[in-house]
Specification:
The complex is a heterodimer. By secondary structure, chain A is α/β, with parallel strands linked by helices. Chain A contains eleven helices and eight strands. Helix content of chain B is 30%, strand content 22%.
Amino acid sequence: MSFISKLRSEKFVITAEISPPKGTDTSRMLRDAELLKGIADAVNVTDNQRAVMRMSPIAACSILQRKGFETIMHITCRDRNRLALQSELIGASALGIRNVLVMSGDHPSKGDHEGAKPVYDLDSVQLLGMIQELNRGVDLSGNKLDGGTDFYMGAVTNTELNEAGLLKLKKKIKIASFLQTQAVFDIKRFSEFIEKKSEIELKQSKQIKIIAGIIPLRSERSALFLNKVPGIRVPDDMIKQIKDAKYPEVEGMRITSDIIKELRTLCDGVHIMPVGNHEHTKKLLEMAGLI
Amino acid sequence: MIISRQKEFNDILQLLSEKNIFIIGCGKCAKKQRVGGEPEVLDMEKKLEASGKNITGWAVLSSACSIASWNDVLSQNPGINKSDALLVMSCGGGVSVISGFAGLQVYPALDTESLGGVCCNEIVTEQCGMCGDCTIWLYGGICPVIRCSKSLLNGPCGGAIEGKCEVDERLCAWDKIFERLKKLGKLENIENIHEPKDHMKKTRVKKT
């Protein structure tokens, strides 16, 4: 069953993040993907994440799709103007990529090519709008396409948003079909986010699917590091549990699987984005009772 | 006001392969920012002489980017004709205008950064993104093209931590835009989706 039909049929979906290689050797990426075979409904393929240059997601998605994986191609506004974005999307569609996840993209100054020109010709809301046009069979200038796209569109969001952030979320909900959140650790705050989302849905008379981000905790150090990432907050008591545990990695798996169990009734799926590879993903999902 | 900063002296020295140098300052923006007025020009003269250059003279023009007659400048500054190169302590606008007249090598001593202003004796930078398609009123007078490090027109990116931009120490421009519009009672300005900028207006390319 495809990612879209699974989400539409109210089944709880599992997606997982895969990084394209930094270079032409795809073996490590494929090994990581193999760990997800039969587990993930789709794999997300990142677009120069953290502004670190890697293989293009369109190429990585295409390689993964040939191996039988359904992909969700990330596309950021950082590196391409409106011409490049559209040609990339049309190419992706022709290669059989059905799902895209849209985001602004980390600023070049945060990555490994600090002096690169930040493009941001469109922002994420405008990019979603542009994809909507491509899906209707016209480009951003209104020219008719010889074959339109048929993308299922996702956007990203933090779960703790100030008023300005909420304003943008409303615009994303107007266009996108699903939202993937930043990593969730605090269920109470996540529930508050879901309430806000439901209010927006009611006002817009539109439903949107929510896939909650999951980063498995591994150590006190990794938890403290995550707290410096925008939009992530690991609660103090969780950090203490990891710190006091005899086997922090095992405790991290337990905490994370508990989070996933609680999320099952709150949203439509989870997105696993481990630091490092997917060697523990299967076990984690088993512990959470998802597979 | 055009915001500029002085290049590192060693970088300027690297540029100057010529021996006989005339220095030109600017009496407008560069003077106000203390990067190209008389004291800075004199300081530059001293440093260049100490580095073995022959300074043929100096002048602070009333405005380096607005020159009525280059002949007047030459007659008041005969040192220019004895020079191999000019070092201009103004924004890129001034360097460009003078380069058009001078007929000899012209070097910039400053790096031009942004369009700003002076408020209560304080220099404010990055006030206008010079996009050629001004919609600043929609954002409560805060230009998202330059104040947001990603020039986002529909809201913040989500990269800020405790109100600070992910790029540097600046505060998230979108928090300020939101607060300003809230105060003005004009939040409806940013509730609708704003379309991408028309960059034809910036490049001033006429459609035929």
